[in-house]
């Protein structure tokens, strides 16, 4: 009896004196040397981070006069092929990805009332995405991160609602039960892709 009281007393003393460890979450790096150009928070609760990032190691494509006419190519509605990353383990929580998808839909429908001025926003459901080193838009919430990369030598415009649908598809379908841990959707012409992965 005395032994168990001593053990319990020592254990409770240890627990009381224990110092809590604060774990800070590192932001997932999308590209080497990544620098955030602009960021804001979107969604009904303003809890999803939307950022445009600069990727210094991406090469700036050479444009011919025919390509560089100052008009963005609208790729809304274009198809892409989904790939899941193997092996399994470590994928984002699909519920966190749903928060991102819902935030994109909310943002696209309420951007005027939110009065958010991001350089990449065009009109209600579309955004502009640059080329070369300024070709990436990133959204993060808790365990989920998704990003859009323009691989075209000209500026593109894309739809938040289409991006949300892709996130809604990849997040639950590229999990450990499918021997995966996230995935991407690559445009059929390979000029852009959207990736969904764990935000660690």
Radius of gyration: 21 Å
What share of the residues lie within helices? Answer: 25-40%
Please report the number of helical segments.
3
Describe the largest sheet: 7 strands, antiparallel
| Series of secondary-structure elements, N-terminal to C-terminal | HEEEEHEEEEEHEE
Q: Unreliable segments (pLDDT under 50, ≥5 consecutive)?
A: 1-26, 59-67, 113-117
Number of strands: 11
- Beta percentage is 25-35%
* Shape call: globular
In what order do the strands lie side by side in the largest sheet? 1-2-7-8-11-10-4
How much is the average pLDDT? 77
Give the domain tally.
1
N→C terminal distance: 47 Å
Structural class: alpha+beta
Describe this structure in words.
- The structure is a single chain.
- This protein is of the alpha+beta class and 200 residues long.
- The chain has one domain.
- The chain is built from three helices and eleven strands.
- The strands form two sheets. The protein has a seven-stranded antiparallel sheet with strand order 1-2-7-8-11-10-4. The protein has a four-stranded mixed sheet with strand order 3-9-6-5.
- A hairpin with a 2-residue loop joins strand 7 and strand 8.
- Mean pLDDT is 77; it is low at 1-26, 59-67 and 113-117.
